[in-house]
Design goal:
Length: about 270
């Protein structure tokens, strides 16, 4: 399965951000990709207003998501991204969407809000209450997480126990002391925890690190971006997953039940 991960600088105007997403979809199609992963919170961003994306939140039938849906028609490419969707007045949910051939295949509201490192995402954002499911992308079972979810191994493991072979992570990973090290370490750790591939897209610019990566089930980085807008590529190989799980059967060797794990995830 051919995977593309695109990173770019999200600006203050949703129309321009949508145009960038559509251009990346075209580029992914031209490269024969089955999957395109885009960053987190793509509606709007401004250094002067950390809540701009929430203030510009739309609805699922709004022009941003429907622009992605319309552009996806007639193509097998699956595009994954996150947008702020209105909940109650002045508040929104950080919502991931998977879109293919004119349809929304999956939506997921971010479970773990980024209330850390002197930031409080929960100020205007409502946490999700349901675990994400899986989608099939070119025969690969694919699970989803959003940014700060990466720090919670229970969620990644729950997806792997559902059968995930690839974990997708749209993100806007904030700059800060040791944050780049955390990002790289956590991506490889979640790959090793689950023996899944990971495809992670990072928003880049003055506030976030970029550094999108595609990591294999042994924690090996197959493709990586730096801090500038870029699209990276790698192939997800089902045989590689099978071979790694034969050598490193951490899922089979577990000593606690899936029901206990699901209970832990739901309480986080």
């Amino acid at each position: 399965m051919r995977t593309a991960v695109g990173q770019f600088v999200v600006g203050p105007h949703w129309q321009q951000n949508l145009a960038t997403c559509l251009a990346l979809m075209d580029q992914a199609r031209a490269g024969a990709a089955d999957l395109l992963v885009l960053p987190e919170a793509l509606l709007a961003r401004s250094d002067d207003d950390p809540h701009l994306s929430v203030k510009q939140a739309q609805t699922p039938d709004g022009p941003f998501l429907q622009g992605i849906v319309a552009h996806s028609k007639g193509c097998h490419l699956t595009t994954i991204l996150t947008l702020h969707m209105r909940t109650t007045p002045g508040r929104a949910a950080n919502t991931l969407f998977a879109v293919r051939n004119g349809q929304v295949l999956l939506s997921y509201q971010k479970l773990h809000l980024y209330d850390a490192f002197n930031v409080r995402e929960s100020t205007l954002v409502d946490a999700g209450e349901a675990l994400p499911g899986l989608i099939d992308v070119a025969g690969i079972k694919t699970g989803v997480m959003t940014c700060y979810d990466l720090r919670f191994p229970e969620l990644a493991l729950n997806l792997a126990l559902q059968g995930a072979e690839l974990l997708v992570v749209p993100a806007a990973w904030l700059r800060g002391p040791l944050k780049e090290q955390h990002w790289a370490t956590l991506l490889s750790a979640r790959a090793l925890d689950t023996t899944c591939y990971l495809a992670a897209a990072g928003e880049c610019g003055s506030r976030n690190i970029g550094q999108s990566r595609i990591v294999d089930p042994m924690g090996v980085v197959l493709a990586a971006a730096a801090e500038q807008p870029q699209i990276i590529w790698a192939d997800i190989d089902a045989a590689r997953i099978t071979n790694v799980r034969r050598q490193l059967p951490v899922l089979a060797n577990r000593r606690f039940s899936a029901g206990i794990l699901q209970s832990v995830v739901q309480k986080t």
